[in-house]
Amino acid sequence: MRLLRSVTFVLLSWPVFAADVDPPLTARERKMLDRIDTLEQRLAAVESRLATTAPPESLKRAQSQTPVAAPAGPSTMAAAPAPVVSESGGFLTDTTFNMTLDGYYGYNFNRPVGRINLLRAYDVMSNSFSLNQAAIVIERAPDPGAGRRFGVRLDLQYGQATETLQGSAVNEPRPQVYRPVFQAYGTYVLPVGSGLTVDFGKWASALGVENNYTKDQMNYSRSYLFNFLPFYHFGFRSSYNVAPWLNVNYWLVNGVQQSEDFNGNKSQALLLAFKPAKALTWNVNYYSGVEDRDTVPALNPGIPVLPTQPGLSPVPLNVPGRRLNIFDTYATWNAGAKLTLAAEADYVTHRISVGPAHVSATAAYARYQFTPKFALAGRGEYLNDSGGLFSGATQALKETTLTADYLFAEGFLMRIEWRRDFSNRPFFLTDTADILKREQTTATLGLVWWFGRKQGAW
Q1: Chain-centre distance of CA 427, in angstroms?
Q2: Burial of 310 by CB count in 10 Å (0-12 exposed, 13-18 middle, 19+ buried)?
Q3: Residue 265 backbone dihedrals phi, psi, to 5 degrees
Q4: Going by DSSP bridges, is the β-strand pair 280-290/323-334 parallel, antiparallel, or unpaired?
Q5: Cα–Cα distance, 59 to 81 (Å, whole number)
């Protein structure tokens, strides 16, 4: 800056130096020099401020490496305001999306015709790689503490299990309508006392100690009792905690299974769940209803004969209504950190075309967790089928099952199982169509995967 001032002064004074004369500065010259002084002072102040506010070297490097963004187009120039995200996370945080894949290979040493394992609910095939079920569970449970008293659950199911449950014409007048829907219900918690929970829709039955999802059971195969007792119901279900040790359930439903009612009657159930100790639960259940069909089924329907949906039958079936009664009780005891014991007893009566029939049955279960990854479980069962209410023939059935678990990781379980079924009469298939045996023995490898944020049993 001083150099600029000197050059300016020399240029203005050149005529004077040339004449060896030093006359006084004119007013115009003095004004120009004052302006240069002022500019020098301002420039020095600016340089001083820039030096004190310069960004750190790391920021300079980051800025030099940041690519230049393309100019925003017309659509982004008028973008909507950013959405406000609630602190609770909203719908997705409160909703669980879960999935399970359950497959098996089983071998029946009778080598039965058609590779059919009789009296099995899920492991129905021999010498075949099989998909028991692939299921998706979506649930948003109610949370009264957070101010949300309603909830909803949907279970979609695919595979062989659907043909045992809602895909079977034994259970549904129109199985094609409900085949993939295992559970679908809504919930509301009424502000009554400790909270009265009411569900409406289709939900898994609580009759019997076993349930649908393999990962939550002691064994891979299911018992006779699971195969005989109701799998699910459609209607209303209410639940109330009378005390910390007692829960009461009341159901009003179409019937056993029956997403659509077989007749105009409704069935009812009363269930009591006792918890006398932290490690012990005891359930006492009674179910009653008229379950017989009152129309001729219209299976595999074509074009409807009336202006209505396919499969709805207008042909009456003149059969007297006969009441089904189920008394069911079971208890579970966590005898220690590694040992779990369970027992179940049932008595069922129902009049059939040849007269009254009844089933009386008992089952016992035990499971021991040797390590966090390895466990052994056993089951023994006896079922007296008087009148063929379960198996279609009057007989006494027994089965014993031993299951080894290996948990590779949370969400991946392998089960190896040996099972033997017995009857007091020739009943089980062999490799010859006309020859039956009193027993069947199977060996099964089951593989189960699951993931999702739902905690505990599904």
Answers
A1: 38
A2: middle
A3: -90, 150
A4: antiparallel
A5: 29
- Strand partners for 156: 136, 181
Q: Report the run of H or E that residue 327 belongs to, with start and end.
A: strand 323-334
Arithmetic mean of pLDDT, 40-44:
73
Q: What is the mean pLDDT of residues 387-401?
A: 96
Is there a contact between 165 and 157 (Cβ–Cβ < 8 Å)?
Answer: yes
The first and second tokens of residue 269, run together, are 């159930």
Paired with 364 in beta bridges are 343, 380
CA 213 to chain centroid, in Å, comes to 10
Q: What are phi and psi of 398, to 5 degrees?
A: -140, 150
Amino acid (1-letter code) at residue 162: T
Decide: pTM greater than 0.85.
no
Using DSSP, state whether 175 is helix, strand or coil.
helix
Task: Identify the three-state secondary structure at position 16.
Answer: helix
Helices (H), ranges, 288-416: none
User: What Rg, from alpha-carbon coordinates, does the chain have?
Assistant: 39
Q: What's the mean per-residue pLDDT of the chain?
A: 86
All domains in the chain, ordered by first residue? 1-39 (no CATH), 96-301+308-451 (2.40.160.10)
Half-sphere exposure (CA, 13 Å, Cβ side) for 29? 12
Contact present, 393 and 423 (Cβ < 8 Å): no
Distance CA 270, CA 238 (A): 10
pLDDT value at residue 300: 85
Residue 257 and residue 255: Cα distance in Å, rounded?
6
Residue 431 has what DSSP assignment?
S
Rounded to the nearest 5 percent, the helix, strand and coil shares of the chain are 20, 45, 40
Give the model's pLDDT for residue 91. Answer: 66
Provide the token pair at 456: 């505990």
Strands (E), 192-290: 196-204, 232-243, 246-253, 267-277, 280-290
Burial of 205 (0-12, 13-18, 19+ CB in 10 A): buried
Kindly state the DSSP code that residue 453 receives in the 8-state scheme: S
Q: How far apart are CA 139 and CA 153, in angstroms?
A: 4
3-state class (DSSP) for residue 407:
strand
Helix (H) or strand (E) segment spanning residue 11: helix 2-18
Indicate the pairing of strand 246-253 with strand 323-334. Answer: unpaired
Q: Which helix (H) or strand (E) holds 162?
A: helix 160-164
**For residue 346, what are its two tokens?**
């049932």
Average pLDDT value for residue range 379-398: 96
Q: Are strands 439-451 and 96-108 parallel, antiparallel or unpaired?
A: antiparallel
**Strand, helix or coil for residue 399:** strand
113 phi/psi in degrees, rounded to 5? -60, 140
